[in-house]
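pasting for ref. prot 1 ->
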Amino acid sequence: MKKRKTVFIFGALSLAVCVAACGMADSNIQESEKAVETEAGKLEQPAGETSVFGESAADGQIDFSMLQEQNPDIFAWLYIPGTNIDLPVLQSPVSDEYYITHDIWGHENATGAVYTEMPNLMNMCDFNTVIHGDDLEEGSPFKELHRFEEADFFTAHETFYLYLPDNVLTYEVFAAYYDESSDILRRYDYTTYEGCEAYLKDICMGRSMNRNFREGWEGLTPYHFLVTLDGNAREDGTQYVVAGALIHDEAGKIDRVILDE
């Protein structure tokens, strides 16, 4: 018989951790949260300036009223310090494929925009929100995700940020690797504890070239909130992925109900 369980996060100090999927002690998560909580207040200037719609998260503020006047499909802003990824995140209400071939202005463009699909909630309360972007061509939105292939860069750049109209979310990058090119969003049933565990097991046990995994995150559970930054499928049947776990919820609004066996 399935039971419903509500999961709440109230800021960095209340990140919910239940039964460890891969064996990390609770103290490791607490130490990691405190370290990143200290860093979250001083955002790093990105390597390249994007100035999309005249906005940048480098100053810690995003004008969503202006952005949504330009394109109402904009619901979030992604900022990855140390890269030029300082961009709006969109979701089309019409087609999950729209922003594969259209830019943030809605113009046809081969490299598209950064976007989520309709199965993902725009309030970021899903277990795993998959954010897609072209990473194959120079100048494409997610090209600089590949900086996380460098061990030194991965070690030095722990966090990325998602701005919402009423919240700021901080994620710690815990893994960066080449995944199989099948659809991550539909490969697992994230509405169940079992489906979430299957995804986490694949990350913990995965082996791929240029894989980086941050020490201390072996105990991720279905009670965490993840964002997967997802590049394009390549000719060799892989896609590059950077995965982060929520460590700070500024407004204390992130929660969800999951089905537990």
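and prot 2 ->
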Amino acid sequence: MSGKIKLARIEDTSGYLIAPDPAQPRLTRAVEGTDQNGHVIQLNVVEERPLTIFLNAQEIVTAMTIGDYPAYLALGFLRNQGMLRDDDELLGVDYDEELETVVVRTASQTTYEEKLKKRTRTSGCAVGTVFGDMMEGLEDVSLPDLKVRTSDLYALAATISRTPSLYLEAGAIHGTILCHGDRPLVYMEDVGRHNAVDKIAGWMLSEGVSADDKILYTTGRLTSEMVIKTAMMGIPVLTSRSGFTAWGVEIAQQIGLTLIGRMKGQRFVCLAGEARLIRDADPTKVADEPRKMGRKGAGR
């Protein structure tokens, strides 16, 4: 018989290269209200701040974000939109906290006026912006044949669910985690899952980190946008404790990305890229989650 997963949070996050810091005072604000009984309560709520991203002299987009890692967010957004190429020479990334802007400077001149005219709003809790040609470039994507052990997936899910985070502190937030084997490496959070994955893309670009042997984990839904971003980053496996959209599944199947959702305790569902899985763990011997688990599939 399987045991119940321990809900105690991980005290030591030194295994992460970047871990959430829910104690950062500027990420939340204490707000006073009343509960269902009329009792006065104080609740920490997540802050939202505008961040305007420039590529050289051109304004690209204004995103609503919690405000941490603005340089990574800007780099990742531009990279995932195809506005930064692998051969672009970066001259600098300048963040102005007072003006709430990030300017990414490249050696080559860039003009994206036509691209900026074509925008598509994407699904999600903090509406993201991608451009009308977001499928452009997918036909050239060739993802590595990374073998994924189910024992690693179970270990990742258990570790991530117990990691202190802004989600557990205040809710209304999404998390995206870059993983290697059974180890979570970089854990980013934001009001939109697209922002969180862009921060990871920016970190990878800044640090020169390879995507070939990585897994991307998200607390949010597996939408077309998440699948496209993951593929454009070159990561072959995307997994979540939440569910799927049909278009997200269709794109994953077309491009050969392994897509795993509803990963909770002993359970998961793979709807694309099954061939990468090595089923080396007996699910009945994996600690299961209790029905009332503190972490849900999407920002509460």
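The mean pLDDT is 86.
The first strand starts at residue 28 and ends at 34.
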